[in-house]
Specification:
- It catalyses: 3',5'-cyclic UMP + H2O = UMP + H(+); 3',5'-cyclic CMP + H2O = CMP + H(+).
- GO terms for molecular function: hydrolase activity.
- It comes from Paenibacillus etheri.
- By secondary structure, this protein is α/β, with parallel strands linked by helices.
- The chain has one domain: Metallo-beta-lactamase, Chain A.
- 20% of the residues lie in helices and 27% in strands.
- The strands form 2 sheets. The protein has a 7-stranded mixed sheet with strand order 6-5-4-3-2-1-14.
- Strand 8 and strand 9 form a beta hairpin.
- The radius of gyration is 18 Å and the shape is globular.
C-alpha cells in the first residue's frame, strides 16, 4: 500500500524566516512545531519511492528520512523553491552511479537546463505532458495559473480505485484548470496564508478562505493544505472545512480507500 509523506510544507521562504520575530517564526525557533521546509512530498510504495519537487531543503529532507539517494522526481515548475536542490541530487547521482530520472512538462525542462546546464550528465530529463505511469500510478499533468508568478503545473495520480491531486502553487483557477480535480479522494493544495489582504493581482497562491470556495466546487473527499507561510500558526484553531487538515513535515497519509473511514 502506498503512503504519501510530506517532506516540507513551507512557502518559498520557509519558516522561520531569518529576519522575522513574529510569533510563528519565534515558536519555530524555540519549539519547532511551525518549522516548515520548502514544499515537497514523497510517495512510498514500501519498496521504492518517488518525490515531487526538489527545493533547496532537499538534502535536509533526505537526511530526515534516512534516505541516501533518490532515483525519480516529478517537478511542478522551475521556481527555485521547487528545483533549488537539483545540484545536490545530481551530485548524489554522480557519486553513487545512479542515473536520475526527472519528469517534468516539456516547457519546464529547458528552463531547468538553462539554470543548471550540467544536470544532464547525471539526470535524464523526461517530458510528462502526455501522461506517464510510475509504480502503477497513472499520472496526468496540466498547467495552472500561478498569479503574478506566471504558471505552475498540477498532477493527478490514479491507481486502482484511488485518485489524488497535488497542486502546491496556484490561484484563481478556472473551470478547465480544475476539471481533473473534481471528486478526488485527496486534494493537496497550496495555501500560503489563512487570509491574504494584498491586492489579487500581486498574489500567486490561494489563501485558505479562497481554498474553501474552491473545495465547494471540486468536492474532494479530503483536502490537505501545504505551502504555508509564517502567517499560518499551527497552534491556532482556524475555521476550516471539516474535511481539511494542515500538513506538517512528516505527516503520512495512506493513498488507498479506507473502508472504515467516512472520508
Amino acid at each position: 500500500m502506498d503512503t504519501l509523506v510530506f517532506l516540507g510544507t513551507g512557502d518559498a521562504m520557509g519558516v522561520p524566516r531569518v529576519y522575522c520575530i513574529c510569533d510563528t517564526c519565534t515558536e519555530a525557533r524555540e519549539q519547532g512545531s511551525n518549522i516548515r521546509l520548502r514544499s515537497s512530498v514523497l510517495i512510498d510504495n514500501g519498496s521504492d519511492f518517488l518525490v515531487i519537487d526538489c527545493g533547496p531543503d532537499w538534502r535536509r529532507q533526505m537526511e530526515a528520512q534516512g534516505i541516501r539517494n533518490m532515483r525519480r522526481l516529478l517537478v511542478t515548475h522551475a521556481h527555485f523553491d521547487h528545483i533549488g536542490g537539483l545540484p545536490e541530487w545530481a551530485d548524489a547521482c554522480r557519486w553513487t552511479g545512479i542515473k536520475g530520472e526527472l519528469y517534468a512538462p516539456a516547457e519546464v525542462i529547458p528552463i531547468i537546463e538553462r539554470q543548471y546546464p550540467w544536470l544532464r550528465n547525471h539526470i535524464e530529463m523526461i517530458p510528462c505532458d502526455e501522461g506517464i505511469e510510475l509504480d502503477g500510478w497513472k499520472i496526468d499533468t496540466w498547467k495552472v495559473n500561478h498569479g503574478k508568478n506566471g504558471y505552475s503545473y498540477a498532477f493527478r495520480l490514479e491507481k486502482e480505485d484511488y485518485t489524488w491531486v497535488y497542486c502546491p502553487d496556484s490561484i484563481s483557477l478556472g473551470a478547465e484548470e480544475t476539471r481533473l480535480m473534481h471528486g478526488a479522494d485527496l486534494l493537496v493544495l497550496g495555501t500560503s496564508f489563512y487570509y491574504e489582504a494584498a491586492e489579487l493581482s500581486t498574489r500567486s497562491v490561494y489563501d485558505m478562505t479562497e481554498a474553501a470556495e474552491l473545495l465547494q466546487i471540486v468536492k474532494p473527499k479530503k483536502a490537505v493544505y501545504t505551502h504555508m507561510s509564517h502567517d499560518v500558526d499551527l497552534r491556532k484553531a482556524y475555521i476550516l472545512p471539516e474535511n481539511v487538515t494542515l500538513a506538517q513535515s512528516g505527516t503520512r497519509i495512506p493513498l488507498y480507500k479506507n473502508p472504515f473511514s467516512s472520508l
